[in-house]
Design goal:
alpha+beta; 4-stranded antiparallel β-sheet; Nuclear Transport Factor 2, Chain: A; 96 residues
Length: 96
């Protein structure tokens, strides 16, 4: 989760795609995701809760809040994200 947040802060579209599960990866939206990530000012990430997600697990969830400024307004993304291992690496599956 933290690495994906950092990728949003850096507008690193390649990493965002690579760290997204192949079955739900938004390849066609990559350019718009990068454009949006560059258009906002990222403030902080708060990880509120995690479930599973240890090295021995195959799945896990992360509840988080990501704060950012957009058009002068403080906004927040509050999500429960599902992660799974794909080819031995943790990837984002989608919102739980």
């Amino acid at each position: 989760m933290r690495s994906r947040y950092t990728a949003f802060v850096l507008a690193n579209g390649d990493y965002l795609m690579k760290s997204h599960h192949s079955s739900t990866r938004p390849i066609k939206e990559k350019k718009s995701i990068v454009k949006w990530a560059k258009s906002v000012k990222w403030i902080k990430l708060e990880v509120l809760h995690t479930s599973k997600g240890l090295a021995s697990d195959e799945e896990g969830t992360v509840e988080f809040k990501a704060f950012y400024f957009e058009n002068g307004t403080l906004e927040v993304i509050h999500e429960n994200s599902a992660f799974v291992k794909e080819n031995g690496h943790w990837v984002y599956l989608g919102e739980n």
